[in-house]
Design a protein that fits this description.
Largest sheet: 7 strands, mixed
CATH superfamily of the largest domain: Vaccinia Virus protein VP39
Order of helices and strands: HHEHEHEEHEEEEEHEE
Low-confidence stretches: 1-6
Number of domains: 2
CATH architecture of the largest domain: 3-Layer(aba) Sandwich
Structural class: alpha/beta
Number of helices: 6
Shape: globular
Strand content: 25-35%
Number of strands: 11
Distance between the termini: 45 Å
CATH topology of the largest domain: Rossmann fold
Length: 247
């Protein structure tokens, strides 16, 4: 198994540059605006907080944000960026929190870094237990897409400009729903190689796993602007709440 901790420790020094190039930094304010409506004046917990790409603008909206991450390097970058966010090293698949939050959220495919169904269910269970009675869990997940795979393999040029080329090589293991991938970043005369293993999950399976831990789907969108989720959507933003008793 490829280590998520190793991957993001390696990626940390260039992560902000990467997210700027692919448009994720520009999207952070939209993400924060979406999340804020669930916890105005309350507290939130981010699973896989990284360098604070989303947590910092959410904090600026008056939300008290805390976070968990398994990368020491990412946590150091966050600490240097702001002293307003409490974050600690931990495994998002298995964590305990004495505090209860109005919002727990996991964005940008971080949930897929958990490479087994058991780990993903454990994460959902830990998140559910960290919610207060009115709290919600928000998860952003990529919709699986397998066009372009030949014999279970695919290589894609993700981005090209006058300075950078991003190449993505993937192997699909359908028995585990794993994508074993390597991200190659060519910049000038340097090449960065970042390996990763992800477990994809369809939205129907995510709903079933959530139900197993006492969560129910509240709403689902195709993006942070609350666009419709359709059969052509490339991702979904799903909002879950603790199960209500039905008469």
């Amino acid at each position: 198994m490829l280590s998520g901790e190793l991957t993001y420790n390696t990626f940390a020094s260039v992560y902000e540059q990467y997210t700027i190039i692919v448009g994720k930094v520009a999207e952070a304010d939209e993400t924060a605006a979406f999340l804020e409506r669930f916890c105005r004046g309350r507290s939130a917990l981010e699973l896989g907080i990284g360098n604070g790409r989303v947590a910092v603008p959410l904090t600026e909206r008056g939300v008290t944000v805390e976070g968990i991450d398994n990368s020491d390097n990412m946590l150091k970058i966050l600490a240097n960026r702001t002293d307003r966010i409490k974050a600690w090293k931990g495994n998002i698949a298995d964590f305990n929190s004495v505090q209860r939050y109005r919002l727990v959220y996991c964005v940008y495919n971080t949930f897929m870094v958990l490479v087994t169904r058991e780990e993903q269910i454990a994460c959902l269970r830990s998140a559910a237990e960290a919610l207060d009675e009115e709290g919600v869990l928000v998860i952003e997940v990529r919709v699986p897409a397998f066009d372009g795979f030949v014999s279970g393999q695919k290589t894609t040029t993700m981005f090209v400009d006058h300075e950078n080329t991003f190449v993505h090589a993937e192997i699909h293991d359908p028995t585990t729903q794993n994508l074993i991938q390597t991200f190659l970043w060519f910049s000038g005369t340097s090449v960065r190689r970042i390996p990763e293993r992800l477990r994809y999950v369809y939205h129907q399976e995510l709903d079933t796993m959530a139900e197993c831990v006492g969560l129910e789907l509240l709403e689902r969108w195709g993006d942070w602007k609350r666009g419709a989720f359709t059969d052509s959507s490339k991702r979904h933003v799903s909002v879950y709440r603790r199960t209500r008793l039905k008469c």
